[in-house]
DNA sequence: CGGCGCGGTGAGAGCGCTCTCGCGTAGCGC
DNA sequence: GCGCTACGCGAGAGCGCTCTCACCGCGCCG
């Protein structure tokens, strides 16, 4: 733990290079409109002095921070500890880094924290926000809307509000679910069950809708509500076996629940995919490839979702001036999914 | 995506409250030495105007940022996608939030990125850094040392350098490993194998050392090197069965590998813990509780590690003035582990 | 040959805040 | 009742940067 040394200022560089502060500033910010000779001289002085611009001073006048907040509203531990979020974060990080932006992570714990986050965002510490708001009744989107800060949501926010200007990035949950169920039907299955995710999340609701799109008049007993956890998947599967012992296929709203379902099916003496075909969602490699049999699942490109969120946000902030006439605010994007066939269906 | 409105300044609040800027500043920063009447009046003005201090302006003069960088050096995707890191991050976040500090996340991808991180840290954007440097040959610690910024490491950095001033938080990997192996020995096992983690990480090396502490003259064939992944655990277990079919216990350096080992043992027709007892490390609940049988394992309190890292760092930055004579720089902390008995040993 | 335009540069005015000083007022002792 | 301390408050000077604007010298046109 060393203390930080006094850092050279613009002034110092200017003195050393024999030019004015303004010129050094110009060079540091790209060097347009400065003679090459001077540019070189200034660069040299910068190197020699090890000059690094003071971001605080810069922000003070530019009102930009080159920083973006990533807000993760996570009352339950669950989602945070799963690879999903990590991958998305990674995508975000890559994109932000590529555009010289910093990532400020805001994790919320409980309701009181919302206020803190709202204050922070409204406080003008960051240029924009990427928000993962998972639950339908989450007050966070409201708060953020009020903060008046450019925002892109991860996943369609379940929002009662009438705002149309919400920008989000999501997977085609409904379409992916349809593909999965159709695939099961294509295998000749007709007692196709669905294990839902937590239905207060739009992803779960959308996947359920996709299931219903195909199974228009499905036996309601074929639908078991769960919560995206392996344990929830097990519980739901037991319920299903109980209610409909003749079930011959299961579409689980994520891989974790599918893995739980597989376990229960095995316990019950059923063979997969022989007796019961199983499909998951997410294509979480570590899970999907390790199950027995390996899981057929609906892949979404999670890292790409993160990258896209960041890209949309940055575009919205339109750095680099409104040159290309891309003035239009970015609109939401729904990424396609693909069915990945492995052993379970 | 709304644009941010013009924000009220200290000046505005001062005018409204009928006091000077200085007084408002005092109130905003705690209100010491200001009459209660004025404090109240200023607070009211602040509320009415929705005043939020401009952090950039403040940092410019205080040279503090109330922000801490969390650096995750993660060449491989693996660790990032596992719950371990997420939990630690959560602990960090909680502690930082409690002290009104922001968390700036820096993920590195590949070697080139190290320079960027170094520049950022040296650039005085944050007050300190929490660094997860996992590999022995990682150049990051060096870089950071050079940046001259207060730093706490997550896990003992494997460092050839002769610096003694490195501060880190780690689990008692060696002690935990000893406990695990002793427990197995206590069950009467004497052909106790070890599946190591990636040995270029100190945690893996330390656990191996702990194993050796107990198994002083262990058959070298009882040690299989792996990489902390389930697949690696499977591979290692197969190797072990191949080399020593009479193995009667396995201590795996983490739960993920233990779960892989369990799978292989089951495949080979062995019963756990009857024929072979198995112990993992980490106590990653979702994994350890879901295996069949549930995994006996060495628990480390990961979230607490994160919290502690943040606490040490903040203490090192000694906000709140050096009042309590805690002037001494914080030193490293090694947290104890506990053996959690479940079904597998 | 005078004026005009233009690219290149520097001077200077802040951005919004903190913090040091110094002044005014109140409270204390003698 | 006077001086002294202590406390509360305001004035003002920056923190390090950006950005506007005016200036200067040059080449060019009329």
Automatic annotation (TrEMBL), chains A, B:
Superkingdom as given in the UniProt entry: Bacteria
Keywords of the record: DNA-binding, Transcription, Transcription regulation
Location of the HTH lacI-type domain: 8-62
InterPro entries reported for this sequence: HTH_LacI (IPR000843), LacI/GalR-like_sensor (IPR046335), Lambda_DNA-bd_dom_sf (IPR010982), Peripla_BP_I (IPR028082)
One GO MF term attached to the UniProt entry: transcription cis-regulatory region binding
Matching Pfam families: LacI (PF00356), Peripla_BP_3 (PF13377)
PANTHER family (alphabetical): HTH-TYPE TRANSCRIPTIONAL REGULATOR GALS (PTHR30146:SF109), LACI-RELATED TRANSCRIPTIONAL REPRESSOR (PTHR30146)
Name of the protein described by the UniProt record: DNA-binding LacI/PurR family transcriptional regulator
Organism this protein belongs to: Streptomyces paradoxus
């Amino acid at each position: 733990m060393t203390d930080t040394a006094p850092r050279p200022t613009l002034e110092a560089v200017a003195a050393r290079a024999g030019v004015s502060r303004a010129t050094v500033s110009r060079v540091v910010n790209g060097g347009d409109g400065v003679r090459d000779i001077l540019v070189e001289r200034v660069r040299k002085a910068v190197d020699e002095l090890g000059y690094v611009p003071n971001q605080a001073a810069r922000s003070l006048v530019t009102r930009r921070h080159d920083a973006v907040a990533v807000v993760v509203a996570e009352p339950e531990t669950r989602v945070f500890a799963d690879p999903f979020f990590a991958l998305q974060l990674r995508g975000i990080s890559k994109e932000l880094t590529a555009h010289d932006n910093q990532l400020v992570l805001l994790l919320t714990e409980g309701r009181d924290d919302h206020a803190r986050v709202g204050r922070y965002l409204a406080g003008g510490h960051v240029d924009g926000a990427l928000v993962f708001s998972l639950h339908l009744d989450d007050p966070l989107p409201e708060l953020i809307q009020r903060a008046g800060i450019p925002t892109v949501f991860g996943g369609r926010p379940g929002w009662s509000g009438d705002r149309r200007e919400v920008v989000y990035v999501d997977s085609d949950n409904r379409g992916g679910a349809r593909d999965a169920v159709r695939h099961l039907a294509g295998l000749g299955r007709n007692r196709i069950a669905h294990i839902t995710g937590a239905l207060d999340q739009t992803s779960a609701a959308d996947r359920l809708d996709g299931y219903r799109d195909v199974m228009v008049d499905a036996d309601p007993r074929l639908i078991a509500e769960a919560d995206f956890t392996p344990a929830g998947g097990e519980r739901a599967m037991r319920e299903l076996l109980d209610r409909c012992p003749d079930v011959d296929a299961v579409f689980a709203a994520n891989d974790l629940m599918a893995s739980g379902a597989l376990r229960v099916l095995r316990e019950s003496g059923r063979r997969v995919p022989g007796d019961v075909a199983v499909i998951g969602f997410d294509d979480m490699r570590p899970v999907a490839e390790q199950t027995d049999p390996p899981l057929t699942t609906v892949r979404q490109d999670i890292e790409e979702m993160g990258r896209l969120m960041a890209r949309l946000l940055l575009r919205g902030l339109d750095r680099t001036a409104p040159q290309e006439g891309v003035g239009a605010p970015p609109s939401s994007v729904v990424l396609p999914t693909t069915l990945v066939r492995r052993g379970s269906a």
